[in-house]
User: What shape does this take?
Amino acid sequence: MHDDFQPVKSAGRTLDVLEVLADQPRSWTLVDLARALDIPKSSLHGLMRTMTARGWVRADETGTRFRLGMRALQVGAAYLDGDDSVAVMSGVLDELSRRLGETVHLGRIDGDQIVYLAKRDSTHRLRLYSAVGRRLPAHATALGKALLAQHPDRDVDRMLGGTWPLERLTPGTVTERGDLHRALATVREAGYAVDREENAEGIMCFAMAVPLTDPATDAVSVSVPTTRMSAEVERDIVAALTELVRPLGQARSMLSA
Assistant: This one.
């Protein structure tokens, strides 16, 4: 790619609209979108009409409020359908869910965030709320810490943007550089990561990187409400992750180049 690359303005604005509608999935007025994206209302009006006509955006009955359209769902589903590691991991997620009865996630690191690619719901009434496509700060999740630990600390600092302290989601969130480096050293030694109410109060999470790539870009987690947590439950989760996830390095040849 040439250093003098200049993005196409209209394409950039289109993507900005889709990203804000995805990041904050609520009903947006034209005025709200124009203000949030710093796009003139006159320019945005034509853009929204085009995107609505193509199914990327849907308008309410008044034609004044907007959300993501069905075309966005189709493209998102196609991404997952065409992803080899999601297919490889499906049986592992099923087995973890069957054995443990708790919420299971497959997540992928994307910059300084984790994106949920797949999930299996807990069989219990009290469970973690989550959704495929949800994004969370990597430093505040077991999934993220399992994957950040794949990299040297200097690269971790770069991946997280180098701005300290990091975002605090709960009183337990690790936000300082030294504390995070020590936490990642513990992950490297143990082979798995633990989130002790760092992302959501009342929820503990255990995660292990999936060795389908080097460094790993995906991880599997099991989330448990603290009310059901015990030393025995923790041992069972770690044992299941070790048995089912760690051997997946042998499946690398199954993935397309």
Q: What stands out?
A: The CA atoms of residues 78 and 173 lie 34 Å apart. The chain is about 40% helix and 20% strand. The longest strand covers residues 103-110.
